[in-house]
Design a protein that fits this description.
392 residues; alpha+beta; FAD/NAD(P)-binding domain; D-Amino Acid Oxidase, Chain A, domain 2; eight-stranded mixed beta sheet; six-stranded mixed beta sheet; 9 helices; 20 strands
């Protein structure tokens, strides 16, 4: 029985664990120093912009397409197994076009999506106001509506993935960090990880020693580089992934702020509440009276720290109100922020083999698309493991 260890239990690690748990003959262990969906996943809005994305070829589009299609089957699949709903919105995503936007570019995208059998529509101002009367902005010149895209609660989704993976026999260890690795040489500058020593953050709990490790999957987001320090007995200054080019990459934190607004009644038509996005601001209907609004994009300072700037969140709020004036009377129920893992030195995400290792896979650095790309990432990891097992 092959033993697979996954480090990280945000949406990426949980999706991989669930995907692999459906394969017979695998022993799966998941480690995380925190509870599931605590870090980047817990701060995400869960807006899944796939079909409406301008990505049209190569890996960026393929991963989006795979993921959006999978979500339409994954959600009911999980709901049936946990016997409760996972909060999500299937009423699509509406992208607002502003002066200066290239509508010809959108027309070309519509033609591309139509050729692939994927629905995408351009709405003029009259149709926008008819379908979404809450939109009162005079600067909006058109809207792009994608009925196939959706939004999902990232925390509820992650917890559902963990619960069903546990039902399938996956072992989860929370409050645990990696203390060290044992590796063996399998050729010139090639290694295998064969054992992982762990440390419990609770002194009363004994941490497991994971022996006979066949595969290590690192899905720890911002923690991916720190948890791999010293894996070969030397300092790992940057990750290197065999699926990418260059001399390796680092992962930096990019902060995002968001907030939840409560209104007295739904904005616009209560029977049609799509996610509305414009000028990189998302307005996400959560319940009849609650909306999530976000998110900022705040890069680290000169010493590598990303600190929330209240003025940037105020800008996001102001922009949302400019599109939907009804939000001006809303009450702020809560504010939150989180750090996204952004790769420097390669495009996001990094999915592939850790350079120099035969059995260590990276599934990290998803930046702002962790929730969106989780199913495709899990599928890619499964394929690499299965193909390797077949070649033995």
């Amino acid at each position: 029985m092959s033993h697979i260890v996954i480090i990280g239990c945000g949406i990426i690690g949980a999706a991989i664990a669930y995907q692999l748990s459906q394969i017979e003959g695998l022993k799966i262990t998941v480690l995380d120093k925190q509870a599931p969906a605590t870090a980047s996943t817990g701060a995400a809005l869960g807006v899944l912009m796939g079909v409406i994305s301008h990505k049209v070829k190569g890996r960026p589009w393929k991963m989006r397409h795979i993921s959006v299609e999978r979500y339409h089957t994954l959600i009911p699949e999980l709901e049936a197994k946990i016997n409760r709903p996972i909060p999500h919105n299937r009423q699509g995503i509406l992208q607002l076009c502003l002066p200066g936007d290239d509508l010809d570019k959108w027309e070309k995208l519509l033609d591309i999506r139509k050729a692939d059998g994927l629905p995408l529509e351009i709405w003029d101002v009259a149709k926008l106001r008819d379908r979404c009367p809450q939109l009162q902005s005079q600067e909006v010149i058109a809207g792009i509506y994608s009925p196939a895209d959706l939004q999902i609660n990232p925390v509820a989704l992650t917890l559902a993935l963990v619960e069903v993976a546990q039902q399938n026999g996956v072992n989860f260890h929370f409050g645990v960090t990696v203390a060290g690795y044992e590796t063996i040489s399998v050729g010139s500058h090639e290694y295998r990880c064969c054992q992982i020593q762990t440390k419990s953050l609770d002194v009363t709990t004994k941490a497991p020693i994971l022996e006979d490790v066949d595969w290590l999957v690192v899905a720890a987001g911002l923690g991916s580089l720190p948890c791999l320090q010293g894996i070969k007995g030397g300092k790992l200054e940057s990750l290197q992934c065999r699926s990418t080019q260059g001399n390796g990459f680092t992962i930096i934190p990019v902060l995002g702020q968001a907030l939840e607004l409560q209104v007295r009644s739904p904005l616009g038509n209560p029977d049609f509440q799509p996610v509305i996005t414009g000028d990189d601001v998302h307005i996400v209907p959560v319940t009849e009276n609650e909306y999530w609004v976000g998110a900022t994009v705040e890069f680290p300072d000169d010493v590598g720290e990303a600190v929330a700037d209240p003025s940037l969140l105020n800008r996001v709020i102001g922009r949302a109100i400019s599109f939907c004036p009804g939000l001006a009377d809303a009450t702020v129920a809560r504010k939150w922020s989180g750090l996204r893992p952004r790769p420097e030195g390669q495009a996001a995400p990094a999915v592939g083999y850790l350079q120099g290792f035969k059995n260590v896979l990276l599934a990290t650095g998803h930046y702002r698309n962790g929730v969106l790309l989780a199913p495709a990432t899990a599928s890619a990891v499964e394929k690499m493991i299965i193909n390797s097992l077949r070649d033995r």
